[in-house]
Every structure is written in C-alpha cells, then in structure tokens.
Design goal:
Strand order of the largest sheet: 1-2-3
Structural class: alpha+beta
Strand content: 5-15%
Number of helices: 1
Helix content: over 70%
Number of domains: 2
Order of helices and strands: EEEH
C-alpha cells in the first residue's frame, strides 16, 4: 500500500508517494484585487492617451491634406484664369482678323461689281 505525503507552501501544493515519487502538483495563484484594479486603470489610461495621440495624428494629416488641396485648387484656378485670358486674347485677335478679311472680301466684291457695272454700261 502506498502512503502519500503532501507538502504545502503558501500557494503551491506538491503530492508524493512513500518513495518520494512525485505524484501531482497543484498551483493556486491569484492576483490581488487592488493590484489588478491598478493595472487595469493604467491600461485604460494608456489606451486613452494612445487614442488621443491617434486622433491628433489623424487631425494633423487631415489638416495637411486640406492645405495641399487648397494650394492645388488655388494653382489650378490661376492656371485656368491665365489660359482663359490667353484664349480671350486669341479669340479677339481671330475675330479682328476675320473682320478684316470680311472687309477685304466685301471691298473686292464691291470693286468687282463696280468694274462689271462700268463694263456693262459702257
């Protein structure tokens, strides 16, 4: 028949048979409530701080992109305005040239009519 002996320490229990052969080991550990609450408070504080840092970083990035968008929009408006003025100047020049050509053609038609009228009535 085996005789069992057990040895206990503050949080561990060891069981041996009569030949000091190890039979089992049972560990009963716990975390003190005050310590656990303190650690949870620290974790929550860290999470809150990390969340605030994340929000600040996102706001900085968002602000940076909004600034870039505003700059690009301003440059694009300048570009469009510049080319609108160039287009307007070219269109006016084209219209002037067209009017000049139309006047030349009208003058030539008038001269041809005059020459024909002179030739027919002579």
């Amino acid at each position: 028949m085996l005789k069992q002996a057990s040895v206990s320490t503050s949080d561990k229990t060891f069981a041996f048979d009569d030949k000091n052969k190890f039979l089992s080991f049972k560990e009963e550990t716990y975390i003190p409530m005050a310590y656990a609450k303190d650690k949870l408070q620290q974790v929550l504080a860290d999470w809150t701080q990390m969340k605030q840092e994340y929000i600040t970083a996102i706001e900085d990035i968002d602000s940076h992109y909004k600034q870039q968008d505003a700059e690009q929009l301003s440059k694009m408006k300048e570009f469009v305005k510049e080319y609108q003025s160039k287009y307007k100047a070219l269109r006016e020049k084209h219209n002037e040239m067209k009017e000049h050509k139309n006047k030349e053609i009208a003058d030539k038609v008038a001269r041809v009519h005059q020459e024909l009228a002179v030739r027919l009535f002579i």
